[in-house]
Amino acid sequence: MLDDDALLTGARELGELRRLVEASLGSFAAEVKHRSRREDGFGGLAQRLGAGTPEKLVEQVSGVSKRESQTLVRVGQLLTVDADPWLAAVGTEVASGRVSVVKADVIKAGLGSPTEDVAADDLADAATELALLAPTMTVEKLAARARELRDDLDTAGVRDRERMLRDKRYLTLTPLSDGMTHLSGLLDPASAAIVSAAYDAATSPRRGGPRFVDAEQQARAEKLAADERSLGQIALDTFVDLIRIGTEADPGRLLGARRHAVRVLVTDRDLRERRGPAFIHDQTEAISIPTAEQHICDTGIVPIHFADDSEPLRLGVTRRLFSAKQRDVLAARDGGCRFPDCDRPASWCEAHHRIPWKHGGPTDTRDGLLLCRHHHMLIHDNGWTINRDPVHGFAAIPPRSVDLDQRPIPMPARSRAAARLRRRTTPPRPQPTTGMTVPL
């Protein structure tokens, strides 16, 4: 078995060998591009072999990825006699095996080309500096340093480069065959700063973020660390909540005058019996009846009921939803999610009908309460119910799979103002001899 020194020496030597192989492959890729010139038409090497582009041909014959082949073609041109003279130092370091193809590519991209405001000699000096720094820097730090040097040389062009990056931004949603949706995109620096800040705030305790001195923040960090969800699941749930909160806060500003509504399709019998599938319009995968009920309960989702013969019976109406004023009342009373030990604020919560609206439950603040999305889904999906005693308040009743005795769990309000008002206006109540006292 190798000792530590031999292990690291071997890794270092193999890394250098890899860089030399990549440099040689880059030279071959550059020659493939030269023999596939546009002016050669279908007589060019790549076109003649049916590849279409030199990058595609390099990908096919060398077995590298599409991105790698593009990088090899770009950097390989630094090793030819026609290389840009201001990047000569970078080409020399690549050929020697001291600088990888990937690092050379970020230097080239970060520095750009000479312009009326940036002389080739100045770019050559910057390229030489970066070529010497490259072996000791990560790719990300090297790319950032290259952009910094370009900005120092071309302060007038900062705005143009900023606009160029912003023009590359995009977001796409692609439905997949299994019912999931793939999200992909690019963020310009200004947008990334906003998104990254939210991501860091949501996940940093799980990623070894700052250690909090504040007791409340420390408790939140410990709770997040114990969360059973993966880091990616926590991040996605957070962004879904942020989008929901943002669109509900002022729907007319972002989404036009009409509140966005998603259509849930369900047969009347399945909804009554609480079994069978429901469907979201334009989505290929079925959802469960409890999930459909959870969305219908709070959001702008419009339920469309069908008879067993597929004829639409009725369209859900807006009176099933709590009004903005009613939500304000619930927020003032509840102070956040009413589920025990949950710390989600009111702005992150959904209004829940204690008795489902389809079963005659009123859209009334006395029978409504705030639940965060996670606990709202728990109530609807896993057989939990909520009782309300006129004196003692709300209590969560777990399913027998959680507690065979189904003992009530108090759901106290978190609003300090409401609690203070109750203390001032409510006389002391005698404790019952049996049962359970559930504070409001």
Architecture overview:
The chain folds into four domains: 4-166, no CATH class; 170-255, no CATH class; 263-319, no CATH class; 322-425, no CATH class. It is 48% helix and 12% strand. Helix 4 (66-76) crosses helix 6 (101-111). With 440 residues, the protein is of the alpha+beta class. The chain contains 18 helices and twelve strands. The strands form four sheets. A five-stranded mixed β-sheet has the order 5-4-3-6-7. The protein is elongated and about 85 Å long. Residues 403-440 are annotated as: Disordered. Residues 325-377 form the HNH nuclease domain. Residues 417-426 have a biased composition (Basic residues). Pfam families: DUF222, HNH_2. This is HNH nuclease domain-containing protein.
Q: How do you describe this structure in short?
A:
Helix content is 48%, strand content 12%. The protein has 440 residues and is α+β, with helices and mostly antiparallel strands. A 5-stranded mixed β-sheet has the order 5-4-3-6-7. It has a 3-stranded antiparallel β-sheet with strand order 10-11-12, with no helix packed on it. A two-stranded antiparallel sheet has the order 1-2.
Give the key terms.
4 domains, 3-stranded antiparallel β-sheet, disordered C terminus, 5-stranded mixed β-sheet, 440 residues, alpha+beta, elongated
The share of residues in extended strands comes to 5-15%
Whole-number radius of gyration?
Answer: 31 Å
- Quick check: average pLDDT? 80
Number of strands: 12
Query: N-to-C SSE series?
Result: HHHHHHHHHEEHHHHEHEEHEEHEEHEEEH
Strand pairing plus helix content: what structural class? alpha+beta
What is the helix content? 40-55%
Number of domains: 4
Q: What is the approximate shape?
A: elongated
